[in-house]
Amino acid sequence: MALLKAALLLGVKLDVMPASTKSAAEGGFMLSHTDGYDALVLAMGHKLPLLRALQEDATAVAFAPSAGAAPFEPGEPSKNAVATALVCHFEFSDRMKAASEWMHVLDGFNWTLQDAKSGDSEPEELIKRYGPWAVAPIKVRLALDEFIGEYPEVAALMADIDTPREEGPLASRGRRRGTLSEMEAPLENVICYKNIAHDKKDAAGNIELSNLKGAPPSFYMIATVKPRLVKALIARMVLLSARETGATASLSGAPRGTRELLDWARDETRKKDGPAVLAYVFEQQLDMLAKAIAAVFTSHYMTVGADVRGAKVCPSQPFPEACRLLREIPCEGTSYGKKAWGRTVQIFDFSESRRMASAAEIVTAVSGQPRPSPLLVVSGGDALQEPFWPEGLGVNRGVNNVQDSVWAINQWQHVRGNADGQQRVVEERQKLYEAFSLLMSGNNKRVLQGYDPRTNSMLPGKERVYQRTTVDPCTRYNTEAFKFVPLKVRPD
Predict the structure, then answer these.
(1) What distance in Å separates the CA atoms of residue 41 and residue 331, rounded to the nearest whole number?
(2) Strand 78-79 and strand 84-91: pairing?
(3) What's this model's pTM, rounded to 2 decimal places?
(4) Residue 40 and residue 57: Cα distance in Å, rounded?
(5) In terms of Cα–Cα distance, which of 383, 468, 487 is closest to 3?
(6) CA distance 90 to 298
(7) What is the three-class DSSP state of 191?
(8) Cβ(323)–Cβ(92) under 8 Å?
(9) 1 and 43 in contact (C-beta within 8 Å)?
(10) Torsion over CA of 266, 267, 269 and 270, rounded to 10 degrees?
(11) DSSP letters along 331-391, please?
(12) What region, left, alpha or beta, does residue 385 occupy, with left being phi > 0 and alpha being psi -120 to 50 degrees?
């Protein structure tokens, strides 16, 4: 969306081409599809098969030499501490009395292992300090151990993919050493938001979920889970699908890293000759894990309640029973279809953040045939640099990367037929990438406008500086170094 808005602002014609990981022979994307275009933006996430296809297709390419890599070559991944995010949406509606009760009692929260470092404190102490959602780590561990240990065979399957203990990005900070429940709680943090921006009510005044334009209202939860929980999820998927098909359950050939393991599981569910039940079971187990986590952090509301207009209110049903996952809501008879919100429960791993070595390339020939004019290829968003969720910079960095790409495209039109000028555009785009977005992190915001470059803190009166930013890098970054030819803006 940022790419579309920025391109339209500059009067750039934008066509969207679906990215496919299929080979050229199978009808996948090829660079020859860009005949007649001046620039190509890769904005489809970091897809290694597509990059390999581009490497084979582009036979003569100029690129930013400072990157020190071949064209379309991924850079060295960032090795983060373990971070796997489970994202899920539960309904926010008053379709039934029990669901309506949760609309009023459950507010957003942010539970972090650091905040619960009192370890085995009595629930009353944590609730008094934080709220009804506060849960001691030992309770989290015991509740999710039920998910992990429900089937005895799961432990043996997990042994096939076991690795030395890995800890998450938050666990090692501010830890009170020796608290077993802290070390073993299989979650790093859980965040819950009320996503109520797009509610729609029916004739009776109830929030309607089956005929919405845009995203429905929901309780939006993000949980950062540890490797043990990810491996239990995959082991359960393999075990239960094997039971359905009569096959032998085994993980002996599966990878051990959490990201590689999740990629392996998804590939297994997509295999044409594999059991169709595998994809269903993976989705089913992911839903069960999401409900198990939600149940832990909403259990206190059932006993101690929450203040609603000065009165204590205790819901009549547990949260996962009263509020369905959005993808469980039937949407037959609507334009959305049966699987309207099928992607509202997902799991992502950011233990290894992939990125491109070069932010821009110049393709001069495709499949051995010279192009009539060079093609500028730029990457934007996750396709350029995958985010690390615990830093909270995924969207910020992605939007800036996209605007940098659009800025380069705008400059490209001014250097047509000028090889030196084209090379300079690519080199300047690489400088923006290396000097700003690659360095941007939760602990380094000094590269952005509005922040003090010396202290990394926001300058007084600069809270809304983002409202004055444009695709021009000088309006977004702390720099005066990137002033190309005057910016061309489409006339009103």
Answers:
(1) 35
(2) unpaired
(3) 0.70
(4) 14
(5) 383
(6) 13
(7) strand
(8) yes
(9) no
(10) 120
(11) -TTSTT-TTTTTTSEEEEE-SEE-BBS-SEEEEEEETTEEEEEEEEEEE-GGGTB---GGG
(12) beta
Model pLDDT for residues 143-202, shown as the tens digit of each residue:
898 899 899 999 999 988 876 544 443 333 333 333 333 446 788 889 999 887 555 666
Note the Cα 220 to chain centre separation in Å.
13
d(CA 10, CA 456): 32
Closest residue by Cα to residue 3 from 279, 403, 436, 453: 403
CA-based nearest residue to 211, from 203, 219, 200: 200
For residue 340 the two structure tokens come to: 């309207």
Which residue type, as a one-letter code, is found at position 135?
A: V
Domain ranges for the chain, please list them: 2-74+361-438, 84-349
Residue type for 54, please? L
Burial class (CB in 10 A: 0-12, 13-18, 19+), 36: exposed
Q: Give pLDDT tens digits for 6-50.
A: 555 555 566 666 655 455 555 567 777 788 888 888 877 777 777
Gap between the Cα atoms of 167 and 351, Å rounded: 11
Which residue do the tokens 């830093």 mark?
A: 391
In sequence order, the 6+-apart residues with CB closer than 8 A to the CB of 487 are 10, 410, 470, 471, 472
Determine if residue 49 is left, alpha or beta; phi over 0 gives left, psi from -120 to 50 gives alpha, anything else beta.
alpha
Structure tokens, 339: 């699987």
Q: Residue type at 138?
A: I
**Chain centre to alpha carbon of residue 134:** 25
